[in-house]
Every structure is written in C-alpha cells, then in structure tokens.
Amino acid sequence: PAKAVLVSLMKGIELGTTKRMSEVIREVAEVPEERVAVVSGPNLAQEIAHRQPAATVVACTDVAVAERLQAICHLPPWFRPYTNPDVIGVELGGAVKNVIALAVGVSAGMGMGDNVSAMLITRGLAEISRLGAALGAD
C-alpha cells in the first residue's frame, strides 16, 4: 500500500556498499525515508519471549510514525520502546555496539576485570558517537 511503513529489525551494514539497512530497504522498495522505520536495541528474542524486561528504540524521520509504532509495540512492564528521529545514529549504534561487546568478551576471557570492561564500553561509546557524527547522525 502507498502509505505502508516498512520496519527494519536488522543490525548491520551492507557488505560492499557500506549502506545502512534502511538505505537498502528504501532503495529496493523505492519508498521515501519517512516510510522506513528502524527498531534497534538489546532485544534477545528468547528473553523477550520469557517476559524479561527489555527496551528498544523505534527510529523514524517521521516522529508520528515512530510514536505509532511505539504504541503498537509497548508491552508494559516487559517491553518498553523509546522513539528517536535519528535513524542514522540508531542504526550505526545497533551495528557497531557488537564490536564493543566482542572486545569486552575477549577482555573477560583474558581475565581482565570490571575496570577494563567499563573502559572498553565508555571509550567504545565515545567512538560510536564520533563515527555517527562523521556519518550524519544527530
């Protein structure tokens, strides 16, 4: 349908083009950016299915679309969606955070303590912010 909203649950960057998933969707479906929303967060399906608390971000350049999706997905008290118009930032954060998680896992495997984990996380977040700013995120 002409006004349908396409929702991306994918985290990653397209190999070869370095396009974000919402860009690929817009290109393939030939729809404007305000009709593509992105859902990203620490959303492990098994934990959500077992009603363990989780939060996510619904991002769309059209704030009304993001808010509509937020209302549809909100399952108190277990699943809390937040909204954000910064599709670029949400997508990059969702994709790049896995690199940080991997580094934290490696450091734990090497016997490093909580200080190293915290350092990797905080410095990693700073790097994600700089990358996002360089690539057009808010």
TrEMBL record:
**Keyword annotations:** Lipid biosynthesis, Lipid metabolism, NAD, Oxidoreductase, Phospholipid biosynthesis, Phospholipid metabolism
**A Gene Ontology biological process annotation?**
carbohydrate metabolic process
Cite the Glycerol-3-phosphate dehydrogenase NAD-dependent C-terminal domain residue spans from the record: 86-137
Which InterPro entries does the UniProt entry name for this protein? Answer: 6-PGluconate_DH-like_C_sf, 6PGD_dom2, G3P_DH_NAD-dep, G3P_DH_NAD-dep_C, G3P_DH_NAD-dep_N, NAD(P)-bd_dom_sf
Q: Where are the transmembrane segments?
A: none
State the organism's lineage: Bacteria, Bacillati, Actinomycetota, Actinomycetes, Kitasatosporales
Query: Entry's Pfam families?
Result: NAD_Gly3P_dh_C, NAD_Gly3P_dh_N
Provide the Glycerol-3-phosphate dehydrogenase NAD-dependent N-terminal domain boundaries: 2-64
E.C. designation(s) = 1.1.1.94
Gene Ontology molecular-function annotations: glycerol-3-phosphate dehydrogenase (NADP+) activity; NAD binding
What catalytic activity does the UniProt entry give for this protein? Answer: sn-glycerol 3-phosphate + NADP(+) = dihydroxyacetone phosphate + NADPH + H(+)
Q: What family does this chain come from, according to its entry?
A: Belongs to the NAD-dependent glycerol-3-phosphate dehydrogenase family.
* GO cellular component terms listed in the entry, alphabetical order: cytosol
**What is this protein identified as?**
Glycerol-3-phosphate dehydrogenase
